[in-house]
Design goal:
It is elongated and about 110 Å long. Helix 3 runs antiparallel to helix 5. It has a three-stranded antiparallel β-sheet with strand order 1-4-5. Strands 2-6-3 form a three-stranded mixed β-sheet, with no helix packed on it. The protein has a domain of 111 residues: Nucleotide Exchange Factor Grpe, Chain A, domain 2 (Roll). Strand 4 and strand 5 form a beta hairpin. By secondary structure, the chain is of the alpha+beta class. 57% of the residues lie in helices and 16% in strands.
């Protein structure tokens, strides 16, 4: 060992001894700890027990709530993605009815009826699971349920009234699955008005 290393080692050992002496003095000078009486121990233990029991009850309630929500809304994502099925069925019906070449086909009515039966069955399944369409036409615009896509000039309706539905919105019990895409009425500007 070199001389500087020996000096460092001696310094650190002296420092450790000083720290030990200081700790001993603190312990000697500190007032003796007051021993808890049996009654005080009982009270603190009882308080800890009550807190633990309350925490367990709160945890149980949280788990019950989460379990109930998982049961009610477990298929939320599946339901939201399934809405495109109804949209596509509506588009298919509209395209068949508007196609001039298919209008001449005698089986067109049967095809449309078949698609509408499938759509009705799908809507029935949705209703059994608490999924309902949002009725929005002639209702006041509500940003919680509607998404405004355009404004329509209309003097017959009060401004802010939904006058056009671009895409149906749906609710699953109390949760919004998809907002309705709507057109909202606004007052028609008069030609003589100056800006």
């Amino acid at each position: 060992m070199t001389k500087p290393e020996k000096k460092e080692q001696e310094k650190s050992s002296l420092k450790d001894e000083n720290d030990e002496n200081k700790n001993e003095l603190k312990q000697k000078n500190a007032p003796p700890k007051k021993e808890e009486t049996l009654e005080e121990k009982y009270k603190t233990t009882q308080e800890k027990l009550l807190r633990a029991m309350a925490e367990m009850e709160n945890q149980r309630r949280r788990f019950e709530k989460e379990k109930q929500e998982a049961f009610e809304f477990g298929g939320f994502n599946f339901a939201a993605e399934s809405l495109s099925l109804i949209d596509n069925l509506d588009r298919a019906i509209a395209s068949f009815k508007n196609d001039e070449s298919l209008k001449k086909n005698n089986d067109l009515i049967k095809i449309i009826e078949g698609i509408e039966i499938v759509k009705k069955d799908l809507i029935s399944i949705f209703k059994k699971n608490g999924i309902e369409a949002i009725e929005c036409i002639n209702k006041k615009f509500d940003p919680n349920f509607h998404q405004a896509m355009l404004e329509v000039e209309n003097n017959t309706k009060e401004p802010g009234t939904v006058v056009q539905e671009i895409q149906k919105g749906y609710m699953m019990k109390v949760r919004l699955l998809r907002p309705s895409l709507v057109g909202v009425a606004k007052k028609r500007e008069e030609k003589g008005e100056k800006k």
